[in-house]
């Protein structure tokens, strides 16, 4: 008989879902795959608001620049400005040598480390931009250099490691 | 009798002459007439080798391109090992109740000060936005064109640079010693 031989469970029947058990097992966390570092799309912005803008803060003092970056991030959160990313640029180390007055040898004065933090925002409206700039400037601490500019691919590339072998091969091929 | 030369063009041509009677052939040293058989073989082997080399390079390029680019590690976030290896622990003296009382009261005063500062900032932002909106409203009533031009974004605003304020003004007539800066940042390659 065709009807008795069919074993499809209908949603109206009480036997619907009989045999299912996976919903009872604990949820498996999917394996964490290493996220590939890819450049996110850069927003150019329209005539009435700016696209991706980088607020770069540079200083010799690590704690100061770190706290200022946190302050700027919190300010943007409070003013409901979308913050894309908030990251640190690689640290630069400089050796400062000075010439002694009596001698002709260069003497090591200090080893200075320059730290830079970047807060990337999107969708800053053209009327609010000068206000934000004013607020950030008024709370800028001593020794912290502020730079605000549009985000470009070159900025992203400067965060990545250089690949001399790849560049060499590309030069040889072309 | 006029001598009519058989050749049409009697141009002075350089005839190869033998340097000495020991030179048996008219060709220069280390040269020979092109021989037909050998060069073809050489060309084939060369082309094959070149092709094999190119393929190897392409394979290498593909392998390198497959590897994702890595971010340069930030030295600020890596604690140097010497700070985690040693077992020395700082032992602080116990605080007297007056001292702890003083500290708590100072913390409260600081919290109040920061709150006042934050409120003043919020008030300032609000005032700025309100006055800006009022000005734009008045401008709109004046002329629509100017309002549209004011709403548009300012291309000359970015890039914007500003140095932080300094504690003291620069000393007049200060003569700094000569020196130089050397960049010793570690270069990371992939």
TrEMBL record, chain A:
Classification via Gene3D superfamilies: Ribosomal protein S10 domain
Record-level GO cellular component terms: mitochondrial inner membrane; mitochondrial ribosome; ribonucleoprotein complex
Location of the protein in the cell: Mitochondrion
Matches recorded under Pfam families: Ribosomal_S10
Alphabetical list of InterPro entries matching this protein: Ribosomal_mL48, Ribosomal_uS10_dom, Ribosomal_uS10_dom_sf
Domain of life: Eukaryota
Primary localisation category: mitochondrion
The keyword Cell cycle is assigned to this record: no
Keywords noted in UniProt: Mitochondrion, Ribonucleoprotein, Ribosomal protein, Transit peptide
Entry annotated with the keyword Ribosomal protein: yes
Domain Small ribosomal subunit protein uS10: 54-149
Family indicated by similarity: Belongs to the mitochondrion-specific ribosomal protein mL48 family.
Name of the protein described by the UniProt record: Large ribosomal subunit protein mL48
Source species: Sylvia borin (Garden warbler)
Classification of source organism: Eukaryota, Metazoa, Chordata, Craniata, Vertebrata
From TrEMBL, chain B:
Primary site of residence: mitochondrion
Subcellular location field: Mitochondrion
Organism superkingdom: Eukaryota
Keywords: Coiled coil, Mitochondrion, Ribonucleoprotein, Ribosomal protein, Transit peptide
Region (Disordered): 39-60
Listed InterPro entries: Ribosomal_mL40, Ribosomal_mL40_metazoa/plant
Residue ranges the record marks as coiled coil: 122-149
Recorded GO CC terms: mitochondrial large ribosomal subunit
Keyword match Ribosomal protein: yes
Record carries keyword Transport: no
Family: Belongs to the mitochondrion-specific ribosomal protein mL40 family.
Protein known as: Large ribosomal subunit protein mL40
Classification of source organism: Eukaryota, Metazoa, Chordata, Craniata, Vertebrata
């Amino acid at each position: 008989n065709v009807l008795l031989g069919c074993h499809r469970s209908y949603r109206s029947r009480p036997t619907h879902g009989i045999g299912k058990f996976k919903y009872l097992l604990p949820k498996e966390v999917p394996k964490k795959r290493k996220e590939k570092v890819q450049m996110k799309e850069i927003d150019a912005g329209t005539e009435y608001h700016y696209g991706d803008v980088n607020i770069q803060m540079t200083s010799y003092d690590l704690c100061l620049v770190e706290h200022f970056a946190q302050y700027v991030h919190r300010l943007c959160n409070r003013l409901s400005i979308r913050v894309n990313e908030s990251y640190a640029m690689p640290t630069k180390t400089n050796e400062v040598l000075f010439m002694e007055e009596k001698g002709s040898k260069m003497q090591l004065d200090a080893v200075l480390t320059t730290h830079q933090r970047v807060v990337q925002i999107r969708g800053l409206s053209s009327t609010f931009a000068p206000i934000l700039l004013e607020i950030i400037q008024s709370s800028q601490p001593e020794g912290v250099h502020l730079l605000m500019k549009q985000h470009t691919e070159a900025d992203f590339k400067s965060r990545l490691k250089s690949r001399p072998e790849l560049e060499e091969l590309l030069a040889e091929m072309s | 009798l006029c001598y009519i030369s058989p050749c049409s063009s009697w141009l002075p041509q350089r005839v190869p002459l033998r340097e000495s009677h020991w030179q048996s052939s008219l060709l220069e040293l280390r040269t020979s007439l092109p021989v037909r058989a050998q060069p073809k073989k050489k060309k084939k082997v060369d082309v094959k080798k070149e092709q094999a080399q190119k393929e190897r390079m392409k394979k290498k390029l593909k392998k390198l391109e497959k590897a994702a680019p890595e971010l340069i590690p930030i030295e600020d976030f890596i604690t140097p090992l010497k700070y985690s290896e040693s077992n020395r622990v700082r032992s602080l003296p116990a605080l007297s109740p007056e001292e702890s009382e003083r500290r708590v009261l100072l913390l409260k005063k600081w919290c109040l000060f920061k709150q006042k500062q934050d409120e003043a900032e919020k008030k300032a932002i609000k005032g700025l936005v309100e006055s800006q909106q009022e000005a734009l409203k008045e401008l709109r009533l004046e002329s629509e064109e100017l309002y549209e031009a004011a709403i548009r974004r300012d291309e000359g605003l970015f890039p914007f640079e500003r140095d932080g304020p300094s504690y003291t003004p620069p000393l007049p007539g200060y003569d700094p010693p000569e020196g130089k800066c050397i960049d010793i940042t570690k270069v990371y390659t992939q």
